Amino acid sequence: MSKVDIVIPxxxxxxxxxxxxxxxxxxxxxxxxxxxxxILVDDDSSSxxxxxxxxxxxxxxxxxxxxxxxxxFSGTVNHGSDYVTSKYFMMLNSDTLIETPNWLEVMVxxxxxxxxxxxxxANFDDRKPYFSGGPFVCGVCLMMEIxxxxxxxxxKSDGKFVHWHSDKxxxxxxxxxxxxxxxxxxxIEHLKGQSRRYIPTELER
Length: 205
Prior knowledge:
- The chain is α/β, with parallel strands linked by helices and 205 residues long.
- It has six helices and eight strands.
- An eight-stranded mixed β-sheet has the order 3-2-1-4-7-6-8-5, with helices on both faces.
- The chain is globular and about 45 Å long.
- The relative contact order is 0.20.
């Protein structure tokens, strides 16, 4: 199996991010064939100290990246994707916790179960998995091949897509190419909106 590099965007709220990092790293031994880099991207937080200063002693193997200016979710994921070196790329919200220990092994295997699948999401809220196309999957934990992500042009990050809807736009682009989306059996917990408490009112849509 090929590796999966995990990009986690964040802005402030380091305590939530710490829980997410811990949850992800605890699964490393359960995913020996697929666990790649963990890339944390700080969206120009105003907190004293950087992500690296907060976490590098405890998590020295994590890669730390900082946006030079605020770009919100879409731009931050795009910036993090520039550091991906593995075949697969995953965007993961910072307000998530991993429930399935071998989640990456499961998601890569399911991704490759159908040549048409080019985008797959982890499962939360006990939805019924599917592997031959279905409703739009949520960008909270979305995996695809990095080459296709770059070919499409990454997440659209202007106008209304600066923080919302860019995951749906990405899936529309994939579906228009004749490919399918899928919803994995691998489960995460999504703390629903905890990572979004920092969003300015003018971006609420």
